[in-house]
Amino acid sequence: MNLRHSMTQPPKKTRKISPDTLTFIHTADLHLGSPLTGIRAMDENMAEKLTQASYRALDRIVDLAIRDEVDFVLIAGDLYDSKRQQIYEQLKLLHALERLDSHGILVYIACGNHDPHSAWSRSLKWPKNVHIMAEDGPEVVFFEKDGERKAAIVGVSYPRSSVWENLAATFPEKEDDWPFTIGLLHGTLGSSTGEHVSYAPCSEEDLAARGYDYWALGHIHKPAVVHQTYPTIVYPGIPQGRDIGESGPRGCYYVVVRPDGTIEPTFVETAEICWEDTILSIEGIETLDELDSAILEALDEIREERGGRQVCCRLTLTGRGEVHRPLREKKAAEGLADHLREVEPEVYIDRITDNTALPIDRETLVQREDLVGDILRISDGLQQNPHAAETLKPLFQDLFTDKRGKKCDPVSPEEIPDLFREAETYLLDLLNPEEEKA
């Protein structure tokens, strides 16, 4: 464990809350300089907007800290997206930290896997309010106000990009004379990995065993208060989503610690551009103009719900209806998306997925003793069989081992039921069972 020392906050002229109350902002995973290669290949202009939105999210965090006169800001790793930072993102971050310094707000940073301690530029002189946690073991820093210790921040930075050991287990236990104690760590808690690599894995029991009051975590991009009290465990998530996998509200946590020890974390949205995954049924829609109106109405609702922010939307059309006929034409979904981008610029359509089908009398068709009936009965059996996905798994594995298949994303077990439905729709479209009766 490293030498303990203190960082003292300069006195402020005014305060909006009791001086005995501790306030701080907890953020992480800004990923400044993220290349956004996926959307850049589709739309260079939107990719540039998203790039700038990450910096504006940082500005919003700084604005919040200054407006509410917080005591300090915690950053739990991955400020940068890469170990090889460009001058632009370095200077943007420097300016943001200098703004906090000019208002007497301290900043504590624990480096993560994208920006390990060794990768931080030695060409910049960080302002005096910034403390970057050591890489050779957990470090204890005391925050002082009015000559009194008000908080202990215990943190560690990644020495390299890949850290597989349980760093939380190396943190010292809270000592009797420590004030309100915060653990600052970039890592993976339990089974909360999702699409993230399990760097610095730990359990809630590991964190609770240290005896701290609050754990300021980073690495998982979805915001969550994992545990409410004793200890409070929080992931703030990414302040600005970069793709559809980071949809929904994105921001940071504003935390108030009352004199009685009550901890009140409040989520504050900082994203300038919001990602939304939207599903729209075509049931009852017969023509393209009706579909156009229904989509525009849905997009208006999304924009209002997101408070007027720019929205990137991935739209999935579902259900059965007559409008499926024009939608099944080649490049129909792409043409519809291009049209919507022109008429509704505030809601950018990232992609339209057509999962619609023609209206059919399924109960009648499934009784038929022909190919159509066979298809429906097989489809029903596959969708109702909980072991069907496992049975077909070798087939999908073979598909992804040839030259073309290697370029595709593998199929997850959750996607297989959707593939069954899509296959059924495709075959019925080819056979046109309802049109046979016309």
UniProtKB/TrEMBL annotation:
Ordered alphabetically, the record's keywords are:
Hydrolase
- Keyword Hydrolase annotated: yes
Instruction: Cite a single GO MF annotation.
Output: hydrolase activity
Instruction: Please report a single Pfam family linked to this protein.
Output: Metallophos
> Which InterPro entries does the record cross-reference, listed alphabetically?
Calcineurin-like_PHP (IPR004843), DNA_Repair-Maintenance_Comp (IPR050535), Metallo-depent_PP-like (IPR029052), Mre11_N (IPR041796), Pesterase_YhaO (IPR014576)
Domain Calcineurin-like phosphoesterase: residue ranges:
23-223
**Domain of life of the native organism:** Archaea
What name appears for this protein in its UniProt entry?
Phosphoesterase
Q: Which organism is it from?
A: Methanofollis fontis
